Amino acid sequence: MSARADRLVVWLGDAIVGDLVRTRANAIRYTGRPGAGALTVATDGTVETWTPSFTRAWFDGLLPEDARRTAAEAEHVVTRGDTFGLLGAIGWECAGAVSVMPEGRTPAGGRYLAMSDEDVWDRLDLLPRTVSDVDREVRLSLGGAQDKLLLARLDSAWQLPLDGAVSTHILKPEPDRFPGLAIGEAWSLMAASAATLTATADCVAPTGHRPTIIVERYDRRIEGDTVHRLHQEDGCQLLGLAPEQKYPRDLGPRVASLRRIAAVLVERADDPTVELGRLLEQTVVNVALLNTDAHAKNLSVLHAGARTVALSPLYDVAPTAWFLPAQSQVALAVGGKWRIGEITRGHLLAEARSWDMPDREARRVTMQTLDALVGGLAEADRRYPTTPPDMRAAVEAQLTRLAGSAW
User: Fold this and answer.
1) What is the Cα–Cα distance from 232 to 40, expressed in whole angstroms?
2) For the chain, which domains are there?
3) Is the pLDDT of residue 358 over 60?
4) Cα Rg for the chain, rounded, in angstroms?
5) pLDDT > 50? residue 4
């Protein structure tokens, strides 16, 4: 294998920040370029070369998971589990501002293919199967296990990004085994938006096609004719954990936890008080809306400066405990409690205390969030009147229980 095939260039926005190299032992190692921007707050910013284990964990976080990853490997003829090979094939447009590209390619070299609305719905209906030869030119990667399509919405028209062009929207068709999930997620985000900052989303259901949730990417900013990438890290990346560690099995000091994410915010945020308040808002919302899937990759930070971060808007929220009644445990413990139906205001207060958040502030944020959700549910009902009534009733019961629980 040539040296060229063993090296990928890592970009942050429109600047090269480092190189990803595959060693003779088939390990991968990231080396930052001198004076370049930092990819992560998980290091102290002075280490230019990462260990192979940290490199694999962090860059795996840019790739799809489970069946979506297997399908991408098959589509691009990449050996199963070959992180380096898959990044070279589809890592040209990722979450945040990172692009991982072969030498000689640049993020500005992408192009778009115009798509009609019917083209989009047909393509969504066929996921996860390949729909045309042009798929080999789709070089986009986004974490998660759910099927999704990344598109750009430019001049009021859909565009399919090719060769690493920037996307602006994520489209997630409803899984056949979870009818109602698309509208359930849109309804949940609408309700949550009354209580905290959320990603902007909508649910559409064109006649004859699967219901689909359309989410505007919060890690993109459009100025005129230019789409800018905004650097972000998910909770696993900023804690130095591999994607499969997004669900901790205990409360150990090195596993994913709200407390560890809060500690990063305290250390790196411009205003830790504001960021901890937002983290508590998101935690209250997830518990109240029966979201048991708020794992470490569903919490992210945006890089606001060279070594400064801010909590991202809330995303991927749905009443998963209603769709999967057997999944009664939250993804990240709250105040040491795992069962979502047993978490009280007292557990929320205990969790906030573990972040060194003052009791008075934690109580205020908790009650303010719960109160706002009451109006949020009503607004979500108006926007999505066909939301499954049993799901809505389950969420209302959880919100009422939580609001009246003991401190």
Assistant:
1) 9
2) 4-106 (no CATH), 108-220 (no CATH), 234-403 (1.10.1070)
3) yes
4) 21
5) no
Please report the pLDDT score of residue 145 as a whole number: 62
Burial class (CB in 10 A: 0-12, 13-18, 19+), 213: buried
Total residue count of the chain as it appears in this document:
407
CA-based nearest residue to 297, from 230, 234, 219: 234
pLDDT interval class at 126 (50, 70, 90): confident
User: Residue 22 region, left (φ>0) first, then alpha (ψ -120 to 50), else beta?
Assistant: beta
What average pLDDT does this structure show over 361-369?
98
Q: Which two tokens stand for residue 268?
A: 């790196």
What average pLDDT does this structure show over 11-27?
A: 92
E-only strand ranges, 96-187: 98-102, 111-115, 149-154, 157-162, 169-173
Under a CB-based contact definition with an 8 Å cutoff, are residues 354 and 259 in contact? yes
Count of beta carbons in the 10 Å neighbourhood of residue 163: 17
> For 374-389, what is the mean pLDDT?
97
Contact 269, 309 (CB under 8 A): yes
